[in-house]
Amino acid sequence: MRRLITNVVLTALAAASLILSASTSAVADTTCQVTDPETGVCLIWIEVPAPEEPNDPGPKDTGHGQSCYWDGTAQNIHKPPPGPVPCSSEYGYWSNNYNCYIWLVDPQPPAGDPGWQGHEPGDGAVYRCYQPQTDLEIYMWSAAQPPNSGAGPTPREVATLAIDQMNLSAINIGIAPKPGPGSIGIVGMPVWMWAANPDSHTVGPINASASAGGITVTATARLHRVTWDMGDGAEVICNGPGTPYKAEYDDRSSPTCGHTYQKSSAGKPGNKYTVTATSDWVITWAGAGQTGTIRLNGLTRAVEISIGEAQVLVN
Fold first, then answer.
1. pLDDT above 50: residue 48
2. What value, to the nearest 5°, has the Cα angle with vertex 258 and ends 299 and 250?
3. Could you report the per-residue pLDDT of 211-228, keeping only the tens digit for each?
4. Residues 159 and 147 in one domain
5. Confidence grade of residue 5 (pLDDT, cut at 50, 70, 90)
6. What's the total number of domains in the chain?
7. Are residues 181 and 143 in the same domain?
8. Domain assignment of residue 219, yes or no
9. Cβ(181)–Cβ(93) under 8 Å?
10. How far, in Å, CA of 256 to CA of 254, rounded?
11. Which end of the chain is less packed: N or C, by CB atoms within 10 Å?
12. How many Cβ atoms sit within 10 Å of the Cβ of residue 19?
């Protein structure tokens, strides 16, 4: 970024011993680059570095979630809203499937009791099901002991099952100059990098749901950034899939994701630079009245490109 400083501004810089003359050179090896012919004001162009944008790491990995939760929506009960509950209490253990605390009735009711629901003693058992949220208590028969959700998966663990369904992968590397025989980039010329043939599995967004232990979680994955190891010691972080190169762009630099090599790839293995792209995903999940974020890194793909020195022929 270039900034024009006139003698008005230079007055404020006098305290820093930057004293200029409209017709003579300034101290500290600073010279008048242009003098306004009408006013005689010395104009100096100085290079002011553009402020570096902070490297945004994205949202943190959060939300493990409790495996036990209350959700009365199936019963058309909306207060209290869905949310985690203690997995055990004085009323027994919590079952997400039955949405209540479970307690084995002891002693068991006699034969013919309505709690057996037509079954005979010894055929399953009768349990008490209590919802402190509604103060509702019922007695029910079950052939097997109702599941204890406190021993089941957490919402985060169910979210990972949803992520497995997404088949997330590293981006397909698009790069100019193209990899392969006969394609050589030039030192000092811009290199463009992007995600080729992007789809929901390589750049997102993509959604999936999974259920386990009476918990259903929906997750959404989005590509947060791609870290490019250029093979020459440089690392370029691009927030997004980048911009595909087109021939009409000529020697312009990429507006979103690019690099310029300062040395040729001669001397490297195969006389090529190995360029590695590592995808960084952010997955948000919601379920069991809870939410969280999962970071997924380490999905990589690599290509090799040749970079040479421009040759000048003199007759």
1. no
2. 135
3. 999 899 999 999 999 999
4. no
5. very low
6. 3
7. no
8. yes
9. no
10. 5
11. C
12. 13
Does this model's pTM top 0.85? My answer is no
Q: Quick one: pLDDT band at residue 55, thresholds 50, 70, 90?
A: low
Q: Are residues 147 and 212 in the same domain?
A: no
Closest CA to 101 of 156, 64, 157, 140: 140
State whether 240 and 304 are in the same domain: yes
Is residue 128 included in any domain, yes or no? yes
| Full domain range(s) for residue 29 | 2-47
Token pair 């097997």 in the structure block, residue: 144
Per-residue burial over 129-162, b = 16 or more CB atoms within 10 Å of its CB, e = otherwise: bbbebeeeeebbbbeeebbbbbebbbbbbbbbbb
SS3 for 211?
strand
Place of tokens 């004293």: 19
Residues 8 and 36 in one domain: yes
Distance in angstroms (rounded) separating the CA atoms of residues 109 and 83: 33
Nearest alpha-carbon partner for 96 in 262, 273, 266, 214: 214
Confidence of residue 60 (pLDDT cuts 50, 70, 90): confident
62 within some domain: no
* Token couple for 97: 């499937």
Q: Which of 151, 183, 218 is the last residue of a domain?
A: 151
Tens digits of residue pLDDT in 96-155: 999 999 999 999 999 999 999 999 999 999 999 999 999 999 999 999 999 999 999 999
